[in-house]
Amino acid sequence: MFLFWLALTIPCKKVEQPSAPTKTNRFDIYEKSAVAPSVLVFFITVSFGGIATFLPLYTMEKGLTGIHVYFFLYALALIFTRMFAGKIYDQRGHQAVFIPSTLFIVAAMLLLAWMPNNMILYIAAIFYGIGFGAVQPALQAWSLEHAARNRKGMANATFYSFFDLGIDFGAILFGQIGYLFGYRSIYIMAAISVLISILAYLWILRKK
Fold first, then answer.
1. Is the CB of residue 115 less than 8 Å from the CB of residue 62?
2. Cβ contact 137:86 at 8 Å
3. How far apart are CA 190 and CA 205, in angstroms?
4. How confident is the model at residue 27, as a pLDDT?
5. DSSP code per residue over 49-94
6. Do residues 16 and 139 lie in contact, with contact meaning Cβ atoms separated by under 8 Å?
7. Which of 138, 135, 179 is nearest to 45 (CA)?
8. Burial class, 97, CB count within 10 angstroms (exposed 0-12 / middle 13-18 / buried 19+)
9. What is the pLDDT of residues 109-158, one digit of tens each?
């Protein structure tokens, strides 16, 4: 009840109606300027689908017991990286962030494919946290950067649609790969997916 009365004190402006009716597109479901970074994040989050879904089973198969430490270290590295990655993006753009970040993710995937002991598992967690913690906000900022002010929300929605689609697609695809070829192959394919994002990024830079 207190929050209700508090909400009544919030000032608001009346929305001004446009002087002339604006034409709307019935199928306006994405922002064109956000497509390039959104496609890149799709290929990157495919790797997250493999980690979130199958890594606990993979560590059990390997006889390792440090999966809880993996996610703890990943979260710490993610938080730490985001404390300075945004400043790098603001000063030097996505060119200074994307390639190093994705190479960290590729290294993390290859370490998981190898993973002889818990120490390698923990190093992979730190690498993945650093890479993902830097590249995800950089791509999100890029997707919003060139959108018009009234299209920022649609640009953000476009970005997160591809973000979630990558995770879902990765979980489905890697389920079949893991069943046919084993869990190790999941992380090799995840590394390839991130390498595809790097090649796509270089192609985008060349086109621009």
1. yes
2. yes
3. 23
4. 66
5. HHHHHHHHHHHHHHT---HHHHHHHHHHHHHHHHTTHHHHHHHH-G
6. no
7. 135
8. buried
9. 999 999 999 999 999 999 999 999 999 999 999 999 989 988 999 999 99
- Whether residue 205 has pLDDT greater than 80: yes
3-state DSSP assignment of residue 198: helix
- CA gap 131, 183 in Å, rounded: 22
Nearest to 114 by CA among 130, 127, 97, 133: 127
Pick the closest to residue 139 from 50, 19, 40 (CA basis): 40
% helix, strand, coil for the chain, step of 5? 80, 0, 20
Q: Comparing C-alpha atoms, which of 190, 57, 180 is closest to residue 131?
A: 190
DSSP assignment of 121-146, as one string? HHHHHHHHHHHHHHHHHHHHHHHHHT
Percent of the chain predicted with pLDDT > 90: 80
Q: Let me know how long the chain is.
A: 208
User: Do 159 and 139 contact (CB within 8 A), yes or no?
Assistant: yes
pLDDT band of 3, cuts 50, 70, 90: low
- Separation between Cα atoms, residue 90 and residue 85, nearest integer Å: 9
pLDDT tens for each residue of 15-59: 555 555 555 566 677 899 999 999 999 999 999 999 989 999 999
Could you tell me the two tokens for 185? Answer: 């192959």
Q: Which two tokens stand for residue 100?
A: 């190093």
